[in-house]
Amino acid sequence: MINKILASPADAVRLIPDGAVLLTGGFINCGFADELLEALHVQGTRNLTVIANNPSVGERGMSHLLRDGRISRLICSYSRKEGTTLIEDLLESGTLALEIVPQGTLAERIRCNGAGIPGFYTRTGVGTPLAAGKEHRDFDGETYIFEPAIKADFALIRALRGDRWGNLSYDKAARNFNPVMAMSTAVTIAQVDELVDLGSIDPEHVITPGIFVQHVVATSVATRKS
Amino acid sequence: MINKILASPADAVRLIPDGAVLLTGGFINCGFADELLEALHVQGTRNLTVIANNPSVGERGMSHLLRDGRISRLICSYSRKEGTTLIEDLLESGTLALEIVPQGTLAERIRCNGAGIPGFYTRTGVGTPLAAGKEHRDFDGETYIFEPAIKADFALIRALRGDRWGNLSYDKAARNFNPVMAMSTAVTIAQVDELVDLGSIDPEHVITPGIFVQHVVATSVATRKS
Amino acid sequence: MNNLTRQQIAWRVAQDIPEGAYVNLGSGMPLTVSDYVPATREVMFHSENGLLGVGPRQAQAIKDMNLVNAGNIPVTLLPGGSFFHHCDSFVMVRGGHIDISVLGAYQVGQNGDLANWDLPQGRKAPAVGGAMDLAVGAKKVFVMMEYFAKDGSAKIVEHCNLPLTGLKCVTTAYTDIAVLDLINGKVFVRELIEGITLHTLQAETDVELHASPQLALLKPPALT
Amino acid sequence: MNNLTRQQIAWRVAQDIPEGAYVNLGSGMPLTVSDYVPATREVMFHSENGLLGVGPRQAQAIKDMNLVNAGNIPVTLLPGGSFFHHCDSFVMVRGGHIDISVLGAYQVGQNGDLANWDLPQGRKAPAVGGAMDLAVGAKKVFVMMEYFAKDGSAKIVEHCNLPLTGLKCVTTAYTDIAVLDLINGKVFVRELIEGITLHTLQAETDVELHASPQLALLKPPALT
Prior knowledge:
The complex is a heterotetramer, with two copies of chain A (226 residues) and two copies of chain C (224 residues). Chain A is α/β, with parallel strands linked by helices.
């Protein structure tokens, strides 16, 4: 019997070594896998590269990893963290390397990796500081730049419901980068609010088919079923 | 009030001139916009370029267009039509030009056009006759070929349910190329089995958001609502 | 001479959004534009975090933080709205499916170049978000800004000297004293508030201003 | 000497599909492989027209032609299955998410090259379908074929002379008389039916055959 369900966030993050490259879903503070990131903090993992739309503004998880210098490199579209100068302090002290990527380019670069596509050409960013050093090429009289696929070791994502095959559904705007990141890596770990029986998610409404998910961890054991 | 609903297939295809380039959803014989294609036949439109996974094996719609020589060019992954030598006859008589594209490459080339991406690199087809004349490029020691975006004037797609904003849901494997083609062109016309009220399709379960659909035609007026 | 308030600029932008348009509102000031679209006009608001059919803000009592716009403001979704993931959201943006993008601006070049994001300056962490995608992807780009920068210079310039967001992308600039259309490298003044003439505005602006054939008075309603 | 029937080749392939594998079955002969996976083993069958978790064929009475596999055969979907569009389906294929692709073959090169599609030959219309994507995208490519072509030559060849589907992609060839692993440009015979030795097979095969360390008897059950 296929069973992708792990007992706890701690069990799940045990797979993740120092120096790992992580995709982490979420937008502003919506749809982050806070419990997985928190477990990673507790585990003491360091020297992480994190690819996220933005550093989570929540109090748990990524905030703790950043505060304690566990993240050495951040690739994001928006690096500000409301109500704190944490990012500014880290950048100033030289302990955090930062790459800024336009939001749509970030999403597509992540998809590319999961789709067997080495990168893509886009008009986004042409003529701006973010095009510096990138391959430029004209198609039909328009200039594009080449943006390479982003490769990562793990995706830590957040979903609403999940089953033992790894099928996932999401809650409203908490969907954001999560399904895209799930497709991208060889090891996707999904934190779900609720475990459900196989078939509980209508096959027409599965947003992330289980093929893209290797491990599922529930944060609410009350609803656990197998 | 936004109302994308047209009264009949005939009204919808009136937009389509001779010489148009059409994306048509469907796979084998599942999910084709038969009534739109049939109306196009009745309208007498000719010199069409059709991009489809395969020529429909059904008796209506695309079969009639092919039989009467209205399709001068076919881009597909699979050109055989079961139970007939129609395609062979057309190829032999020189009235049909044919381009064969691997199925996944076809889908991605269509997506590219709707995504503002001029084409993509793929390993699919490298070393085969279908790579002839195409740009080759190595990434990380692997060889890829460049496949350009497919541009079309119209997409004729088939869905299960649609509303006046153009939101669509599909029926099982009849989904196939339809949502991908909807995204790709400036003018997407959807044949739906059933018109439903705004909000009837759960926002979590909308497969094609209305932004990708310009016109909706129902084949069953019995269920029409606004 | 009454400069437009921010609300009045938002109101002015809203008047130029036609029924049926697909519109993305940038964070900050642009987000208020939806408040001023006439109730009889159906407009589809897109939020790049995966929402189409964004409705009014949530009532205080609800506070569903999984239903927020790109500015993290709790919103509602209209019947007929939809949710989708980030790649699909930016297919809409990059692929030219959004009719109008409304963005803030630090500078606008007379050729339509836009500068509206921060490279590291002083201690501020950099942030570009979806602005670059919206600038090149939307069919029209409306910007909202004060006409003059804090140093008194016009924000509409011959060449932007701040980091660019996109090239030749701005269609119209809505400011506190004028509405400016950017057409083929020229700046056309379409509306001016009472008490300002094209002549007096030109005196304080380095780039050449042209009178739009539709030159009219910019007269917003009183708004709070 | 009893050559395997097509059903027995399908049975043999099925034995090499482990629990939890994501497997795509090509049209024709490969589609029957799922019939022979032990009922205790959970395997996820993918169909490139947008299905994951494909179950047994539909009972005659149902006949839902919107629920078909890539061979247009009406099938069922298991609880936990899902539907998706063609781009997502080929993200699964091209992106390396499918563990095993089972395809038919006209020829297999000793380096793993695969020839299994038709360029125009005589009056037949060309068709490639998803074979090229599956050949390069799946982690392992299993092919099913008769060992000998109609003209008596072995289908495993030094260099394919039919139009190629993919380069160096075939992992294992399952035939009516032998199972062959293709490893680093060499052909290893893993199983042989009773009455055939590596020596006798070599005599009828142009490419050099090596004995696999696991060389064993290929002995299928009787199947109808």
